[in-house]
């Protein structure tokens, strides 16, 4: 599937919402004809069941019993199970696109999704959207439900935040952009309170961000930010990187998955006022402990200069890719 909507339809087919014991069929014909409200309560289990049909109680048992052929695999999410049970209690929800209105959390991982399409607006109750490990390079904020609180785009191809920040969800609390193609300094301007007034957690790890001073100047506007991940960026190689961030963001609780204790904050106190320490350079020490399968250089040094016969000379080139 190329879009999120297409991937969701594939997900619904995997859940078997159109098939027994869910769906609309002879096993619940009378309930479907009655057009029961989507707010149907389990109290309906007490009603008489016509001959040839199954009660909602029996159908739910077929979904919940681990030994049932209609039970979901153990690795399926609790939401998938709840969605099937809701459809059993109110099968008329399968008409039209009403099922999407029940979804609060949507996880589509490694499905080849390339487009966050406007079909997402059907998810009027969506609070969590996980689209990791896909091929998304552009996110149009106008296609995101305004109810979103969590947006995870880890392991994608996002290289620009302009479209995402045009009309971002105002209640968003977590934004995950780790392992993407972000590079500074043009992207830092999109990481301010003007776009993310309620952001608590931000993951920018393993991108290509280089401007530590510029990034910090924007992040200081995020008064609710408590969790920040920046490891894997070139700016994390700067020697005073962690100390400068800890002192610059006094409300931060966790940096790069490491809790900030009061002792550490006290240790780096005053570092934020010394931006001259932040240089656009880094020192990297590479130590090679042991290499196997290569001739020992000492063996060649023992050869005499006037030695007769062929002499084999070996040279090696070591390349470091960052």
Question: What key phrases describe this protein's structure?
Answer:
322 residues; alpha/beta; Leucine-rich repeat, LRR (right-handed beta-alpha superhelix); 8-stranded mixed sheet; LRC43 protein; repeat; Leu-rich_rpt; LRR_dom_sf
Task: Give the structure's gist in a few sentences.
The protein is α/β, with parallel strands linked by helices. Helices cover 20% and strands 7% of the residues.
Description:
This is LRC43 protein. The chain is an alpha/beta fold and 322 residues long. It has one domain (4-22, 55-277): Leucine-rich repeat, LRR (right-handed beta-alpha superhelix) (Alpha-Beta Horseshoe). It has helices spanning 4-15, 29-33, 56-64, 78-89, 212-219, 241-248, 262-267, 297-301; strands at 105-107, 128-130, 150-152, 174-176, 201-203, 227-229, 254-255, 258-259. Helix 3 runs antiparallel to helix 4 (78-89). The model is unreliable at 36-41 (pLDDT under 50).
Write the layout of secondary structure elements.
Blueprint: H1 4-15, H2 29-33, H3 56-64, H4 78-89, E1 105-107, E2 128-130, E3 150-152, E4 174-176, E5 201-203, H5 212-219, E6 227-229, H6 241-248, E7 254-255, E8 258-259, H7 262-267, H8 297-301
Parallel strand pairs: 1-2, 2-3, 3-4, 4-5, 5-6, 6-7
Antiparallel strand pairs: 7-8
Helix pairs in contact: 3-4
